Structures are given as C-alpha cells and as structure tokens.
Fold each of these.
Amino acid sequence: MRSAQIRRTTRETDISLSLCLDGGEVGIQTGIGFFDHMLTTLAVHANFGLTVSCQGDLAVDCHHTVEDTGIVLGQAFAQAVGDRSGIARYGSFFIPMDEALALCAVDISGRPYLVFDCDFSSGRIGEFDTQMAEEFFRAFAMNAGLTLHLKLLYGKNDHHKAEALFKALAHALAAAAAPTGGAVLSTKGML
C-alpha cells in the first residue's frame, strides 16, 4: 500500500496527516473552511485517501496552518511514492472551472521546483489568504520532491481560480503517481 502517516508538532501548528495514493477515507479539519474545501477537492479528484487534523495559531493568521500543512502533505507524498520506481512520473492536466482555466504539470523527479503563475484579484477567499495558495504549493512541492508548474490561463472569480488550480494538481498527481510496474523512468536509471 502506497501510504504514509505523519505527525508534526511545532510551537505554531500540530498536524496529524494520513495519505494513501490508492484511495481511502477523506476527512480534513484545519480550521480554515476554504482550505478544507481545497484539500478535500485535491484528495477526491486525485482519488487519494487523505485525513488531516491541524491545530494552528489561527489567532495570528492562516499562514502557519496552510504552509505547515503543505510541508506535511509533501513529506507524506514523498514517503508514499518511495524510490519513485514503477510510476508514470509525469502528469499534466487542464481544468476548467466555470470562467477559469488552470494548467498543472508535474514531474515526480526528486528535484523540487515551483513555477506559480496566478494572480488573484482579492486578498481573501473566506478565511483563506489568497497569498497562501502559492505558499502551500511551494511547501508541498519542496517537501514532496516535485517539479511543479501551475498556471492560471484566465479567470475572474478567485474561488474558481483556486479550485481550478487544486483540481488540476489533483489530476496531474494522479497521472504521475499511477503505477506502471516498471523501473525508475530515467535514462540515468535513478532519480
């Protein structure tokens, strides 16, 4: 079973997370409604089992909760894919969300990098600071060992923009993590 469980406690957050790349229960509780919705969307569209329980210093703002959740999810993803052998490695997907269109391309390469090309027109979506979208994706990519490109081609509604990005990531990750039964997909023989 390609899965991982991680508990990470700092002075700012206390996170318990369970991830299974082959499906399972989905239950998210971070204290930030819109972020819970996005993580649920990610899990459902990738067909991942994902449970997250996070107690964060939301009296300060949502920064630590969102970024630290990205760190822990990335660590769990890296553990779940293991040595990266026997997976497709690459995935990309376009997602239309009403008037918004987003693209995600991912390489489960072990070489973390993020390109994030998305502008939001408002500062918040519910209690979620829109600046934190990029911080989440960066923390996730760096800790998962992904080369991750996310681009919003167009859109007006910030909820739709963010949701299109998370759904595009979900489908690209599902494609890239799909089992192939082969060796590591690299001319080097390793990543």
Note: DSSP finds four helices and ten strands in the chain.
Amino acid sequence: MTINTLKPFFWSKIRKNVLLFLLLFTIASCAKKEVLKTETFKTNSGWGYSISYQDKIIIRQSIIPAVNENKSFSTQEDALKTARLVVKKLNQNLSPTVTENELILLKIKL
C-alpha cells in the first residue's frame, strides 16, 4: 500500500497563496484615495476658489465663470458652492465648466 502525500501538500500551498493574495488585494483596494481639496480666497472685489490635487493647484478661479462681467463671488459660501460643483464634475470625469443655469440652480448671486 502506497500513501500519496504530494496532493494534499500541493493544495494546501495553493490555498495559502490564494488567501494571501485576497488579503493583499483587500488591503490595497481599501487604501485611502487622494481627494481634490477646495479652498476659498479673498480677492479685491469679493471671493474666489481654488481646487488642488496632491498639493498642486489645478484650478484657480477668481471671477464668476459663465458671466460676461469680470466680478468675483459676493460671498465665501457662493465660491465654495461653485467649487464643490466643479469637484463633483471632476470626480465624475466630466468637464469642469460651469454654466449660468448651474449658477442659478446653486442660487449664486450674479
């Protein structure tokens, strides 16, 4: 009578490797993703906003977009609402342009 111990040893190694791979994959997928950061800043005539990624400014908006006049946001909250809209669009892989209708929906004072 011959006892074959090779198969159980082989399958136990594969199970350990698969479990290790699943553990590493789970840890990697739960890693913190870099997020876009918004900040408001004071201008000569009001407020503006900037959006940065990995501590590099990618958008700096000192005037209200989609408006014919070159005027800043009247309040810090208006600038922040618009910045949040742009970040939302960027996270959805959409163009970060803002239309006048979107500003009206956000109740931004034009």
Note: Residues 6-29 form the longest helix (24 residues).
Amino acid sequence: MRAFSARPRGLRLAILGDYLPQSDAYHRAVVDAASDEVVFLGSVYAPAEVAALRFHSVGYLHGHTVGGTNPSLVEALAAGNPVIAHDNVYNRWVAGDAALYFRDADDADERITSFLGDPDGRAALAASARRRHAEEFTWEHVAGQYEDLLASQLPPGDRRLPRENA
C-alpha cells in the first residue's frame, strides 16, 4: 500500500477484502497508508465480477509473502495479467518470468513506476503470464501429474490406472 501510494499514479488500485471497517491494527495500517487513488471494494465473491476486474486491469499486484501455490496469483496468470509480486520462493515458482519482483516498499515503488511507464513491458509480461498458466496450471496438466504419481505406486508391469466406465 505504501509503495503504490508513494506518488500519484494516474489510476486506481482496487483492493479486494474486508478492510472497512478497520477491525484490527493491520487493517487500520493498510487503510491509513492508502492514497486517494486506492479503492477498497470489500469482499467480492461473484466469479463474473472478479473475472471482470482481472481481465480489465492494467496488472495485478501480489503482496503475499508466504504460502504455496496461491489461487489468486494463478488466476491472475490465467487472465493474462502482468504481475508485480513479492519476491519469495512461492511466488517465483508460480509466476516464473511472468512477474516483476520486489523485496520491500521502496523496491515495489520502483517496480510499479517502471511497470506503469512501460506498455511494451506490460504486454510481454501478459504474454508470459498466459504462457506460464498454460504450461503449469491447466486442469489437464495438474491432473496428469497426479495420475503419473499414482501410477508410479502400482506394482511393476501394472502401470495403467483403472478407469471408471472403461
């Protein structure tokens, strides 16, 4: 929040989640750091609304610092969002070369500024996002990896998994 709000950006940052009313110290700090270009939309659960936000956004800012395969990051890649993400092993594995990475608020400010000033760079990140999603996160690919893992546990010579209605 501090990074985006460090200077006028000429566009709005949409924040999803329950930040208002400010129920705890963390939420208060986030809201207090926000410039007038930040819009707190609250929780948005309607898939069509979330999809519209993703497909019509300039990019996706992913500040998660812990986790694993974060669904919102995977969904941003599927939508072809160019990504600016916190630099950690989880985000790097998920986004690969489809993101610009930052370590702290000053670094994020620099990435946001360069990102917004580089339409060709954003287009390249968007293409990388779609490619990364297609390579690693389709249902067919993920299910195929599970199938291979399960098949590897069958006795030698019996590597075919039984299929329902086969």
Note: The two ends are 53 Å apart (CA to CA).
Amino acid sequence: MDLSYLWFWIVGALFIGYFVLDGFDFGVGMSLPFLSKDDTDRRVIINTIGPVWDLNETWVIVAGACLFAAFPEWYATLFSGFYLALLLILLALIVRGVSFEYRHQGSSDRWRAWFDGFIVYGSAVPALLWGVAFANIVQGVPLDEGHNYIGGFFALLNPYALLGGVTTLLLFFTHGVVFVSLKTTGELRERARTLAARSGVVTVVVAAAFLVWTILQHPDSIGTIIASAVAAVALIAAWFANRAGREGRAFALMAVTIAAAVLALFLALFPDVMPASNDPANSLTIENASSTPYTLGVMSWTALVFLPLVLAYQAWTYWVFRKRVSRATVEAAAH
C-alpha cells in the first residue's frame, strides 16, 4: 500500500481514538447540571475522569501533529479556513482543563459554580464544533485553485454541518453519562442510567438522520453504508444494554458506535481529504496533499515503535483507575 494512503487511515484511526476517549470526557463534563444534586455529586462525577481526561486529550495533539507531517496541504487548508471554529475549540479545551484544576482551589460555592459552568461549556463547545468541522470536510467546502478556503465562518454553519454537530454533541453526552453509571455507585449511578436511557432515544433519532443524509450524499460508498449500519446497530444495542443495567457492555457499544460513525465519515471522504464544493478540480486528495515518501517512511517507523507503547501505557492507566467512585470515598478524601 502507498504510504500516503496508509497515513490517511492512520490519521483516521487517531481521530477515532480521540472521539471515543475524549468523547466520554466531554459527555461527563456536560452531564454535571443534569446528574448532580450537590457539590459531592459534582466531585464524584469529575473524579470519574480525573485520572484520565488529560491523557485522553493528548490524542488530538498526536492526530494534529500527524496530520501536519503527513498531509501539510490538508493541514494548511483546514487550519486556515476553519481557524475561528478551531480556535473556539482550543479555547474551550483550555478553559475546561484549567477548571478541573482550579474548582477545588476556592472554598466558596460561587467560586465552584463558576468553574463548574466552565467545565460544562468547555465540554459542549468542542463536542458541537468537532461535528460541524468534520461534516463540512465530508460535504465539501469552496476552495480556490490554490486550495484555499474561500467561504466564511457562517458558511460552515449550514444545515448538514449543524446536524453533524448536534449528532456528536448527543453521542458524546450519552457516552459520558453511560461512563458515569459505569464508574459510580448508589443513587448517582441510577440517575445516570435513567438519563442515558432518555438521551439515548434522542441520540438514535438524530444520529440516524445524520448518517442517512451522509449516505444520500455518497450513495456509491459501500463502506460508508456498512459502517453507518454498524453504528446504528451498536447504538441501539447500547441503549438496551444500559436499560438492562449492563453498563460495561453499554459503554463498549457506545465506543463502537462512535468509532463506526467516524469511520463512515472517513470512508465517505476517501480518496479526497478536502473536497471542493465549487469545483472538483480544486479538491485536495490523498495524493496531492501528502508529504514526500521519505517523510512518510520516517513517520511510519516512528509510529511502529512508539504507538504500541502509548497504547500500552493508556491501557495500564485505565486498569489502575478501574474502580468505581463513591460519595463515601470523595467525602473521606475531603477531610
């Protein structure tokens, strides 16, 4: 296989990993006002992702770095054309990360309320805008002959892209709520299961509409149809698993749902990386956007050595912090 095509799928795999892992982080952050009844509940919810949220977030750094090195033309067009949306994502991630560390530095309820709000909005904004960005990439945007984006920020807020944003928002929210039920005990666990069941119904409807729209735009992509079907079946199965109290199975099925949905988008995009909606001749493809074979070769050997180490470390981290978080442990740690 040509290395440029290999790296297209590696970049796709990195973004799949990011959306699956940081996706439930976003969902946990967004769930704060819906699941918590007091500050102890909020601390329990935040502690479910406390040991792993920053590790999950590094996936987008790796994905962005690989995108820059493997497809510099794609990176340049994407970050110059979508700079405002991506800047908003970056600022939201910064505010969210700071809030995790600062909310417990003050003793007043008002102090904690401010940073809790930052966590909620800092989780919701990326969850929405990542979907908007990827939907625009798959649908295509206007590009000039130099592969520069010639639309504006509000042109990105078209119906298909907004539906994509709402889809990722709901998928991540439900994924995160299921994770809370998996990692907590008692009444909070039951509230999370109930909320996941309710949000899951809305998520099924919205995600189905988005995937059907994607298929209608790319009817010749058999891979997109298959991946979309897998995502739909996994999402429905996750809803039933959650209703049955099988949180571990529900969480795994939600991960499959998000992975299959993102894969469907990359399959719809292939072999382009940034299709031009105004003139197909201006589109960026895997071949005209990739780096030199030498660069891709060096990257391949580097990934072969270090990627297994990163995966092993992340798996070990999740194993170490696998236990549930309870109100009793959080209250005990506060004294």
Note: The first helix runs from residue 3 to 30.
